[in-house]
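Q: What residues go here?
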């Protein structure tokens, strides 16, 4: 069961949310790079992070050559599809910051989801040189049904989030695009810190269920996220409106 004790920070609107997320990610990056050569960042998909990525992408003054980019999940669609999480990152982050291809660990989408998951597991395994995934920071979103990455309610990987599993799995999603690949809780929870970014009133019920219910992770998948390090929820007031305890 998740021993839930995350930090919850509430923004007045989506712009302040993206500003705070930018500040925290850059702080984590700078702090990490004083202690190690590289910073590994897992990007979230969906629409919420667009503003955040645009803000990060405006920081051309920083040395991004020591940052490696991964994806928490991907839709198995062409890389130039508007549904591609890779395309969002390319347009808002990789191109503006001139990120080189050897810094980008994208999820293959030109093969079957099962083969893509296996290949991505191998990519991560090779990067960390062992069967772990100690990402320095993970960005995640939240769906209105409580899903995160492409871990939807009922996914077997959610039954026991602490159980060692492959780092990456193929997923048949209940919403299109249905063919997806996702990091598992086992992979995500080895991160040194995770930021869950949520905006909008349509997410309020999921936020409340995630933070103020005792639902099992298989019902509210984001409750499987319990990283080895810090867990921070960055929420705007609209998404936080159903919370009974948090103030902001
Ligand atoms: C994806 C995401 C997914 C997303 C949520 C929220 O590939 O769709 O990884 O987990 O974060 O569905 O999506 P929005 O930000 O579009 O609401």
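A:
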């Amino acid at each position: 069961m998740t021993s839930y004790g995350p930090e919850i920070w509430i923004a007045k609107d989506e712009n302040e949310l993206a500003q705070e997320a930018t500040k925290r990610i850059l702080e984590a990056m700078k702090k990490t790079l004083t202690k190690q050569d590289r910073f590994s960042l897992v990007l979230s998909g969906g629409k919420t992070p667009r503003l955040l990525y645009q803000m990060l992408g405006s920081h051309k003054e920083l040395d991004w050559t020591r940052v490696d980019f991964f994806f928490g999940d991907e839709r198995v669609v062409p890389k130039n599809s508007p549904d591609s999480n890779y395309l969002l990152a390319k347009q808002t982050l990789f191109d503006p910051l001139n990120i080189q291809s050897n810094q980008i660990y994208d999820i293959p989408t030109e093969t079957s989801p099962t083969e893509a998951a296996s290949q991505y597991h191998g990519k991560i395994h090779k990067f960390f040189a062992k069967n772990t995934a100690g990402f320095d920071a993970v960005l995640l979103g939240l769906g209105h049904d409580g899903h995160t990455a492409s871990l939807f309610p009922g996914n077997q990987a959610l039954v026991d989030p602490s159980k060692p599993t492959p780092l990456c799995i193929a997923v048949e999603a209940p919403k299109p695009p249905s063919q997806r690949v996702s990091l598992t809780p086992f992979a995500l929870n080895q991160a040194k810190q995770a930021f869950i970014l949520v905006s909008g009133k349509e997410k309020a019920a999921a936020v409340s269920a995630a933070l103020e219910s005792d639902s099992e992770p298989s019902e509210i998948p984001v409750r499987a996220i319990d990283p080895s390090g810090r867990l921070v929820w960055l929420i705007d007031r609209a998404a936080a409106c159903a919370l009974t305890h948090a103030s902001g």
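A: Context that may help when evaluating the design: Residues 44-48, 72-73, 85, 141-143, 147-150 surround 6-phosphogluconic acid (CB under 6 Å). Residues 14-32 form the longest helix (19 residues).
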